[in-house]
Write a structure and sequence with these properties.
Blueprint lengths: L9 E2 L3 E5 L5 H8 L15 H9 L12 E9 L5 E11 L4 E8 L8 H16 L4 E7 L3 H9 L3 E12 L2 E11 H9 L1
Parallel strand pairs: 5-6
Antiparallel strand pairs: 1-2, 2-3, 3-4, 4-5, 6-8, 7-8
Helix pairs in contact: 1-2
Amino acid sequence: MGGLSPEYPIRTERLLIRPLTMADVDAVTAYSSQPDVVRYVPYDPLSREDVIERLQGPWSRTELTEPNQAMRLGLEERRTGELVGDVMLKWESAENSSGEIGYILSPAATGKGYATEAAEALLRLGFEGLRLHRMFAQLDERNPASARVLERLGMRREAVLVEDMWFKGEWSTTLVYAMLDREWRVRRAV
């Protein structure tokens, strides 16, 4: 596997998936600073300074050149040009040929199918771009909306890890959803 260098923007029906830039600071801060929005992601509410630091550092990656790297990409609504969220694609392991996906949306963009649309594009990047064998997503069991997104994509719930993590001051139960490359090919052929 040689890595992934997507051609941007990645176009879906209603979204442009593209690298985040410093021009996105205010939009990212607007949703990532809200406790309810970041409730189930692995960071606390972010200040504007936190967002700037991440955009200049780990969130600036636009390609995956080796395992254990992740890239965070913005979701721009094609119709309005507004940033409505961001997604994460991680090349988890070369040996196990696996990758992970994640997503976060502005409250105004939830319930419109954007997470499903963007996550499907991430699966395509993982299976067709990185040629991975298995893609997975992990989520808190108290986040049923995220579970529905993954189920709509055809991912199967593989594990329930009961109170496996001390997360934001309480025990959290993790759900793991996954899909194999052969399952992706079958879904794409339909």
